[in-house]
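Entry type: protein chain
Record version: 2
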Amino acid sequence: MSSPAEENKYRRRLIQNAVLLFFLGSVLSLVLLFIPSEDYFQYYLNQSDLFLDEKNYADMELQLKKATRHAKTKDQWFSIFKRSYLASVEQDDFEYFNILVSNSRKFLKGGADHEALYTASLIWTNQYEKASASLYAIQQDKYKTLIAESLLSYDVYRNYNLNNMTPLEFIKDKIRYQEDPVFFESVGTKADNADLLYNAALLSMFEGDYDRSASILNRLPGNKINPYLLGVLHYDLGQYQQAYDAYQAQSIVDDVKGNQRFTIHQQIGDLAYMGGDKDEALRAYQKALDINPEGSWKSYRNIARINLDKGYSNRARSVLKEGMTLFRDNVQLLGDYVHYFHSSYPVEVKNALDSYISGFPDLTEPHLLQIRYFPQQQSAVQYQSKIWDLFNKDHKSEDVTRFLLWYLSGVGDIESMEIVLQRYEDSGESPFWFYFYESIIELFRGNIEKAVSNMNVAYSLDPQWYLSYNKAVLEIFKGNILIAEDLLLQAYDDLTVQSSVFDQRSYLSKINFARATILVEKKEFDEAIELLQEALELDRNNIRAATLLNKIK
């Protein structure tokens, strides 16, 4: 047995050890208490990375949950979001990502970036109404796509049966086969997508809703759509100045890229030509040929016509011959060559025409050119028979049909004209000249009202100067002198700006003569004399103008 003194000594030692342990525990607790929280955060984050690599997503989520208890900064929170997102993508399930981001909003005010993640998580978990309601906090340009996706998703979700597709999958599927301009416009507007809006404008035009198409087109930002595509649509809508500007812009873009295209310059030339700027048109057409001499026969024809307008007939002839060499089978170039130069160079032109017919004997158009410009010595019956032969060979040929109608109208054979029109109509087409010749037939029959009606239809399809002139003639028949006077002035103005009209001065002289006869009837002799004098300046062979001038002087 131990003595009382030894027991007391033992107790004192136990108390001392207990005090020491308590002190050490307190110190250790204090040390642990002041270990930086970042170390815990990084530890759990590293653990989550290990589980993510192993595709152990349940344990990864547990480690991320622990990391959230120590996340203090925006960067730390976004590190957690990143790992959660990667796991969600792998599992094709964004439920946990949505919960994580949603709960984080209680502890973190991360600004627009944070709210954008929240909106995205709502979309990915099919909470479209909440997503569309959350957009107030992310109204920034960099989130335009997300905003559009949210608005579109909610709009489609509440208005369509999605058939187990997401709204965006539904939109992509519908756009692939959809031809409804309203749908394209709705989606394009909400998505701020210029391509979809362009398609909406295009489809509207195809449906005949030109006002809607123009309205959509005017809202399109020019910097988001290929200028060439804008030019095409502007042209089809009749907005020629806008089309010209768009093609010019495309030319600049092509120049920067070192990729000039002959088609762009040819279209610039066409629009400049239509606008009366022949110098600009000539430059554009020549540029087109410089880029690709074999690009299009139209460039040669148009350059030749501009040179004719400027009085450079030799240059025009040279250009046409060059084009005919490159485009040996092109009957349009041949037609211009024969039309404009058959009287000045009859042997040369006839040889070229004969050579063409020899190479392409089955084409009707060159045979028609031969009949028109180089008729053989024959009777009227033989001449008409040759035209009928061509028509019977190809009654769908517009050139042959129109020439035959012109000839028949000249001899007053309205029964044959009706036969020709009936046979051509069977081909399913009724162009402007079809109604023009129907008007002539009704005029021969004395049906003025029907003649006027058909002439109006012809003019509505193609408002040419000679249709205005013939409308004026019909109004004179009806006694509507003032209307006829306005139509003749319109015909004169239209013909003045129209390029490459064969015998243009002769036609202008005839129009002035018709205007003068109206002024004589109104007893406005001074004005009539001025018009008649101008008519004779335009065409010295206008015998009717000279005769009337002598009468009223």
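Comment: The longest helix spans residues 4-33.
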